[in-house]
UniProtKB/TrEMBL annotation:
It comes from Rhizobium laguerreae. Keywords: DNA-binding. The lineage of its organism: Bacteria, Pseudomonadati, Pseudomonadota, Alphaproteobacteria, Hyphomicrobiales. One of its GO terms (cellular component) is cytosol. One of its GO terms (molecular function) is DNA-binding transcription factor activity. This is BadM/Rrf2 family transcriptional regulator. InterPro entries: TR_Rrf2-type_CS (IPR030489), Tscrpt_reg_Rrf2 (IPR000944), WH-like_DNA-bd_sf (IPR036388), WH_DNA-bd_sf (IPR036390).
Length: 178
């Protein structure tokens, strides 16, 4: 997704350069959360991992990872167990965890700008008519393309094939010039 969004950003860069300078594609929180979930998805069924081990294996600051894993636990993606044999594990199979849900949980809406968001819509100060605004309409298409990929990608797929979805390149072709 992040490469895809970056490529969409490159497409618009000539006209909307300042907009993209202010847009974060994926925060460290989102990136670290995905890395931790990949780590946990690779565990044997019933196995748990201590936060110190996850942090060390993935080069993630432990305090930051504490916050991330707590957030993922609070929405039901992870479970934790204290004491001997304790640690973190996935709360359900990796086939049931969608990458889009994880990213929305940690980073918020997938839309590249607020006026294109379904869940955090905020009108632009400089837009007379949001319904006819070409930037908003185009960024809504970008949002839909990103969501189509991430909402159909499971954690299992993300782990197994590096996050590639069959047909994604064909569905959303990007020119080599991007």
């Amino acid at each position: 997704m992040f490469t895809l969004l970056t490529l969409f950003a490159c497409y618009w860069q000539d006209k909307y350069c300042d907009f993209y300078k202010a847009t974060t594609m994926l925060t460290k929180k989102g990136k670290y959360g995905l890395k931790a979930l990949v780590d946990l998805a690779r565990l044997a069924p019933g196995e748990t991992a201590f936060i110190n081990d996850i942090a060390a294996r993935n080069n993630i600051p432990k305090k930051f990872l504490d916050t991330i894993l707590l957030e993922l636990r609070n929405v039901g993606i992870l479970r934790s167990k204290k004491g001997p044999g304790g640690g973190y594990s996935l709360s359900r199979p990796a086939t049931e965890i969608r990458i889009g849900h994880v990213i929305r949980t940690l980073d918020g809406p997938l839309a590249p700008i607020r006026c294109a968001s379904r869940t955090a819509y905020e009108a632009c100060d400089d837009c007379a008519d949001p319904e006819t605004c070409q930037v908003r309409r185009s960024m809504t298409d970008v949002r839909d393309a990103i969501a189509a990929i991430l909402d159909n990608m499971t954690l299992e797929q993300f782990v197994a094939d590096g996050g590639r979805i069959d047909g994604a390149k064909e569905q959303f072709p990007i020119s080599a010039a991007s």
